[in-house]
Predict the structure.
Amino acid sequence: MEETIYAKIKTKESAEALINELELVLKSLYLGSDEFAFTLRTKVRANLCEYIKTRLNQENINIENHIKNLIERIRLVPCVRLILAFEPSDDALDRFHSIVISACQKPVFLDVGFSPDIIGGAIIIYQGKYRDLSFKGLFEDEFEKEKENIISFLKK
Amino acid sequence: MQIDQSLIYIVILLFTTLTIFLVGIIFAYLKLIRNYVDLKEGRNKYPDPKIFLLRAHAKSQKIIEDATDKARQVVESAETLKLKNIEVVQKQIEHAQSENLKIYQDSVAKIQNESMKVLQNVPEYIKTLLTKEVLIVKDDILKEIKLATENAKNLINQAYKQAEDEVAEYKKVRMSALDKTAINIIQQISRKVLNKEIEMSEHEKLVIKALEEAKRQNIFSDEDSYQESQPEKYK
């Protein structure tokens, strides 16, 4: 069941939003059944609402502990930092996420940053490992090579 | 017995002493008696002082008279000499005066002549001296002016060279900064243009390519071995 939740979360931002929703549900648990039902109905996304209702229908489950554990597990999911030269669409994020998931073989969130300076490609940081696979370095190298030509051209 | 002998010695000593004292007294008495007898008989052993005084007086009278005669003679001869010499001295003084007057007049005349000559030569002398001094001063001033000109010229040259160097350095720095700024601007513009020129689908393709390259480089593996974390150029 939890995979359905993870499958919907691709980025760090959406993971934080889910944690916020789960904390709201957890608070509403202490405010009574009406407030809990109201929160599930109005303040969380449909898939999360459905997930919790399914869990509640199961016997011998402590929903409070379950939500707390879920929050903790989401917080422990690692992030892959991607610095991109453009702001990607949801569709693009899906594709990037699926590639990363297939590479990591475990739940991973994308932490996407935007930096037009890198021109194209991406800078990837994961668990202390850094790879600059952008056009920035290539561009700077080429520019350095052409620098003298540009200066001489400017001086004409 | 012993004491008795001492008493005997003492008695002998006392006796001797008394004997000597008695003998002395007897001699003194005899002398006194003799003086008394002489005085009584009128005998005098010393000459009369009045005789001596009279003799001395007579001798002194004689000496005074002799001295008076001698003095009179001397005074007389001195007066005669005085009268003779006064005339001679007067003549000599007159002669000396006339000689001195003549010498004085000659000297005055000579001094006057010399002074006149000197006074006549003074302007010429001063002129010569001044001309010489002026020439020396002129030479000195010319030397100083030349030296000052050379110094000023050197200073100006140095300052000019320093200014030129500073301007060249400043120009170099400014040109370098300008070049850097121009390059940065061009770089920024180029980046923006390139960024805009690349389509979204191209961007996505490039990112997917980068992710696959990362996957190939085992970036996403959970191995603890620390892999190269320096930027690797995307090719």
In short: The CA atoms of residues 1 and 54 of chain A lie 9 Å apart. The first strand of chain A starts at residue 79 and ends at 84.
